[in-house]
Amino acid sequence: MLTNPVVETYSRLAADYDRECNSESCWVSASRKALAAVTLCDRYRVVADVGCGTGRALAKLAASALPQVKFVGIEPAPNMRLLARQYTQAFPSVQILDGCFEDMPLESDSLDYLFSIFAFHWARDLDRSASETARVLKREADMDLFFVGRNNGR
Asked: CA 150, CA 138: separation in Å to the nearest integer?
């Protein structure tokens, strides 16, 4: 049973998240700009999107990535994960997992690149989120976090 009201809300609204009526919102526009700023370097072999939502960003990146790049989507909302798995099923290089910034189901020092588009501001424990992020990133890894002010949206 879910206990995080933000996760519960995103899971409840998952079916409507990518609908046409939402496609011109300021958040979708900002998300597109953030995704356009994501650059996959040739040295990346494992890339994670934390708070991957419906998986659209992962699918777009996987469609144009080198074949040896593996992608991991981490998403706490069950219905968003379900949609992400459906949306990325054509890309065997993409795996969708249950998790969040505070608890990533990844091995230590396993990521070459971590990005997150408008999810980090929902983290409930910033110290744990920072520690967990540091744990999963390789020493030479890169990271891009796109987020709004900590208390916005709460």
From this structure: 26
What are the tokens at 76? 């706490």
Domains in the chain: boundaries: 40-146
| CATH no. of 40-146 | 3.40.50.150
**Which pLDDT tens digit goes with each residue over 40-72?**
999 999 999 999 998 999 999 999 999 999 999
- For the chain, the DSSP string reads ----HHHHHHHHHHHHHT-GGGTTSHHHHHHHHHHHH----TT--EEEEET-TTSHHHHHHHHHS-TT-EEEEEES-HHHHHHHHHHTTT-TTEEEEE-BTTB--S-TT-EEEEEEES-GGG-S-HHHHHHHHHHHEEEEEEEEEE---TTTT-
